[in-house]
Specification:
Blueprint (H helix, E strand, L loop, with lengths): L2 H24 L10 H25 L31 H14 L2 H17 L11 H83 L1 H111 L8 H43 L2 H10 L3 H16 L4
Helix pairs in contact: 1-2, 1-3, 2-4, 3-4, 4-5, 6-7, 8-9
């Protein structure tokens, strides 16, 4: 083992110590009754790995590490029957320590037990295993595997029982809700019955009091008759005052009706005014839109005017140039052969380019001038567009409406050629 391999092995040992400390810290406050079967098995496996791990750490502190091999020998490697538990079996001592740390984090008891056995075999082969007796790790691994299978079966049964309990709990909740509703209804009815009983008791007390009063009235009938006359007089006065209050209320109601009618009239007037303002705004918007469209046509007309003047200037220049070229072709630059007609044809061919350029410039000038007149016409027409649209809205004849619509569409939607 060289120094680099030793450093790698020491890093793996630190990783294993951190994983073991993290696991012990996680289950430090968990009681024995709250631990699962897997956590108990993992704790036993950690007890088994403690001794070979401590002996390896002591060996690394001495100078004997130089004589230890870094690669695992064949007896300390994973067996063929155990390869199903590993994705990639360890081949070096550092990989074995890292796999032990990973199995502690993942709580994989089987892999942890196999790796612990391989570490112990490695230490036995190289003479620093001081265990008093050799533990039968294979039997423990088999027992742990069997316990895991039983635990899985128990977990499946527990899951089924848990689902059944959940269904029963939902049923009980539904029944409890119905019972609660019935209890609330019963409480409401009990409260109503208690109110009725209280009313009956109050009526009974009133009847008793009235019975006593009748007995007293029987003894003092004369006084009561006088009191009855006084009460009749007071009742008549109260009736008069009530009638006056009713008359005042009727008058107030009529005033409120009048105020409501006036308010409705004011609201109707406001709505009418708002509608008129909306129509005015719409007309102003149409005028603004027409002005904007007319301004666009005017800008286009001015730009076309500049192009038309340019082509006119080019036409004049080309006319002068073509005249000079034709004159020079027939006087100075002409071809002189024995045939007069051949001379004419050649001179005409030489001067035709200038004529074609002049014709093209005149054609472009005519096209730009036509477009300028078209946009000038549209600028004039668009100012009357709002009036056409108003006539279109006010017209009731279908043929006139169609005529106005076609006219507006041709004026505003058709592009000039």
């Amino acid at each position: 083992m060289n120094r680099q391999q030793r450093e790698e092995l020491l890093d793996s040992i630190n990783l294993l110590e951190n994983s073991r400390d993290e696991y012990l810290h996680t289950y430090a406050g968990v009681s024995i009754h709250d631990r699962t079967v897997r956590s108990v098995q993992l704790r036993k496996a950690l007890e088994n790995v403690k001794r070979p791990f401590a002996q390896l750490c002591e060996k690394m502190k001495t100078c004997d590490w130089l004589y230890l091999p870094f690669d695992l020998p064949e007896p300390a490697r994973v067996r063929d029957s155990e390869l199903t538990y590993f994705g990639m079996p360890p081949k070096t001592l550092s990989q074995l320590i890292v796999l032990i740390a990973a199995s502690i984090k993942k709580q994989n008891v089987t892999v942890l037990s196999i790796c612990t056995r391989n570490l112990a075999v490695y230490e036995m082969m190289f003479g620093f295993w001081n265990a008093p007796q050799k533990d039968n790790l294979d039997e423990r691994v088999a027992a742990i595997t069997e316990a895991e299978e039983k635990t899985g079966e128990l977990f499946d049964k527990a899951s089924e029982e848990f689902e059944r309990i959940l269904k029963m709990t939902d049923l009980v909740k539904t029944q409890m809700m119905s019972v609660t509703e019935a209890e609330q209804n019963a409480k409401a009815k009990s409260a109503e019955a208690a109110e009725k009983v209280a009313e009956i008791q109050a009526l009974t007390e009133q009847l008793d009091a009235r019975k006593q009063g009748l007995e007293e009235l029987k003894e003092s009938l004369t006084l009561k008759m006088n009191d009855a006359e006084d009460r009749d007089r007071q009742f008549a006065e109260k009736m008069e005052s009530a009638q006056s209050l009713i008359d005042q209320a009727c008058a107030r109601i009529s005033e409120i009706d009048n105020m409501t009618e006036n308010s409705l009239k004011d609201v109707q007037a406001c709505l009418t005014t708002s509608s008129e303002k909306v129509e005015k705004i719409k007309k102003m918007t149409d005028f603004v839109g027409g002005g904007s469209l007319g301004s666009s046509f005017s800008k286009r007309k001015r730009s076309l005017g500049r192009k038309a003047r340019l082509w006119l200037f080019l036409s004049l220049v080309l006319f002068g140039g073509a005249s000079w070229w034709i004159y020079n072709v027939f006087t100075r630059f002409g071809v002189h052969t024995d045939s007069v007609w051949a001379d004419v044809v050649i001179n005409v061919a030489m001067s035709s380019m200038a004529v074609f350029a002049l014709i093209f410039a005149l054609w472009e000038y005519g096209k730009e001038r036509k477009l300028q007149e078209e946009y000038a016409f549209r600028e004039t027409i668009v100012l009357t567009l709002t009036a056409c649209l108003e006539q279109l809205d006010a017209c009731h004849r279908d043929d006139v409406k169609k005529l106005l619509s076609d006219t507006v569409e041709k004026l505003c939607s058709k592009l000039p050629v």
